[in-house]
Structure formats: C-alpha cells, structure tokens
Amino acid sequence: MAYGDAGRSVDALRTFRQVLALDPTNGIAYQNASSITLREALATKDESVRTSKLQEAEKYARDAIAADPALGEAYTTLGVIQATTGRKSEAIDSWKHAVALDRAQFNAMYDLWFELAAAGRRDEASQYGRQFVTTAPPALFVSDIEEVKRYLRER
Questions:
Q1: Which of 65, 79, 127, 144 has its Cα between 20 and 30 A from that of 97?
Q2: Long-range contacts: 138-143, Cβ < 8 Å, 24+?
Q3: SS3 23
Q4: Does residue 92 fall inside a structural domain?
C-alpha cells in the first residue's frame, strides 16, 4: 500500500500479484489490489479507462470476498465501486455487510449514512449516523463527524 500511497500503483499491483501467485487465497492482497485499482479508476478522466479499471477493481473485491468472506474492508471497497457505477442499492447492502462484519468500518458507516440520507431513508440514516458519531475516531473524521452531527440535530 505504501507504493500506492506514493503514486506508484504499477509497483503496488505488481507486488500484490506476486503475493497472489504465491498464495491465491490471500484475501487481503486481493482487497489491496482492489483499492489501488479503484484509486486509479477515480483518478482518470478517460471514461473507457475508468470503466475498465472499475470492472477490474470489482473483480478484485469479489475475489477478496471469495477468499475471505469475513473481510469487512472488501465489502466497503465493493460498496464504493457499486455506488460509483450507479448501483446505490447494492452499495448500501455491501456497506451494511461491512459494518456488520467489522464495527471499525468507519468509511462504510459514513457512506451508509450519506446514501441513506440522500435516499430519504432518515431512520436508517440516523441509526448509522449515530453509530458513526459515537465510534469514529475524531482525529481521522472530525469534519465528517460534525457533518453527521448537524444532520442528526436537524432531524
């Protein structure tokens, strides 16, 4: 992931593929490949490349889930891919699964709150919003926590 954070996605993906060649059951390697490929997709302006990268990222996410069905982060990433490709209902289901598996999936909690609120599903949005506000680490999510708190006060 350090390669990816340094903007060296080609090196990151090569490394994950090497790990998977040694251990094709490594869910974390699939998840990390999905995350890096998703970043590439979101960074490009070329729609055909974006579509191709999103499909590749989704395959990696689904491979991660197949290798390790308890990997909450893979469901979080899958949800982002689904939301990005217009499948909001599927994204909500993926994020709910992520949070059910791992209560530390704060990005999934925030995304759930956001999409449920946008869909007018206020009770569910408030439920995940409260969970996010009370559990997300403020050092990492201070502005998001404040945004959710404003929503909850207005409801």
A1: 144
A2: 140/106, 141/106, 141/110
A3: coil
A4: no
**Residues 65, 25: contact at Cβ < 8 Å?**
no
Q: What is the radius of gyration, based on Cα positions, of the chain?
A: 16
**What is the number of structural domains in the chain?**
2
Distance CA 89, CA 73 (A): 18
Q: Is residue 132 part of a domain?
A: yes
For helices 27-43 and 9-22, the axis angle rounded to 10 degrees is: 160
- Based on the fold, state whether residues 111 and 69 are members of the same structural domain: no
Same domain for 82 and 111, yes or no, is: no
145, 136 Cβ separation under 8 angstroms: yes
Dump pLDDT digits (tens) for 56-109. 999 999 999 999 999 999 999 999 999 999 999 999 999 999 999 999 999 999
Tokens for 43, please give them.
């960074």
What is the secondary structure of 84-146 as a DSSP string?
Answer: HTT-HHHHHHHHHHHHHH-TT-HHHHHHHHHHHHHTT-HHHHHHHHHHHHHHS-HHHHHHHHH
Q: Is 76 exposed, middle or buried (0-12, 13-18, 19+ CB in 10 A)?
A: buried
